[in-house]
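pasting for ref
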Amino acid sequence: MKSSEVQTRSQTLSAALAAAVSGSLLICTVPVHAQSLFGKLVEQAVQKVAQPSASGGLQQNTLSASDKKQLEEDKADGLLDQKKVQTDKRGISGVYFANVPMGGVSLNQAGAFAVGKFLVEYDDATGVATIWTRHSYEANDPAKLVPKAQFSRNSTYKDRNLRALQNTTHFLLREGNPASRQHFLYGQMIYKTDLQGNAVPDKLVPTGLETLLELEPGILYVGPAPFAGDKTSPDGHNLLRQGTVLPMLVKAGKEEAAKAWTAERIVRQYRMANAAFDTALENTAATADPNLALREPAAELATRAEMEAAKQQWNILIKTQAVGGTQSTRTFRLVYTYPATAFETQHKKQWVNNTYADTIVSRSRVYVAVFQDQDSKYWTNRFYLVEKAPPGVYFGERWAGQYEYALPASALPVAIEKAAALKYQSAAKTR
């Protein structure tokens, strides 16, 4: 195909995609060429995709001859086969083919290309999966470069997150980068409500990739995550609706196996993968780091009232979802706690005596907690014990004896070896 033809082709496709990749719009509202690939995504008759299937959506045999030719040329191109791919322990990396026609949008949104062949590379060291097309290697023209899509799995602690990815029994990356949503598109069904209040298929619209879920070796699901069920809708009801498209990336030789993955099976696989990761993430914290040591105690001992308040506040925070909820299978019992820093006062500008003054509103210091689970394994975390200043006291050092906790990043429970855990037990003294 001549360069002038490619440019014309790109302009035709990108016109239909422009609204889909601008901001968060998914529905194409600009006029589209009747023969363009994504013109058909918008205009495709609902009847042709009325039945849900693993290969639902815009079928190749409904494309125009020129669209079909471009798609076949992309699948046949050998550039991706020649790339040296970093191997990974799970065998995710490799060349895949889309089970439905897809489009790649250029970096500056001036060009768009029918794509059906992809190179997926998973990095064990970073926990990031990258998806390339043959257009992802363009070095000079932003109208020809389709940015690579990347998927990862985010959590509070990067090292724990990575270890969980390495140890989970399933493979699911839920977070895609902007390119995955804006530059990799396929046709997904949207719905309208009929006079009886039922959601019925309306039309296909260009939609970005959302998740990366391994269904089985050589088959990756890249569509929307299943919604949770409610009183009237089953779990994963957004995937179970009539006409929903289930986009997949499939290695050569796995085409028939991919067709067996129904919406119901994908919903179950997603839930199992999510639960497996949560379990793996919890288990990473349960493995004691032999180098983990407690912070040294502060020189200033706590009063009896302060120590009792610290114990009470720890028992509250360890039961919160943000802290104790990160270890859903464990219950904790406090062994001891002690202050690791001196008090620091917190100030606030307040209106006092007809002027704004820098007043004391509270003070806080770090407490270290050592505790055990139901299996007598030792754990530790840290929190701020906050004591409020009495109302009406703006500058003095009197305190109300009203306490609360504040959470630093170190508030999540982590396992610690017994000798290290009990090192400062004698520091839990009061004055």
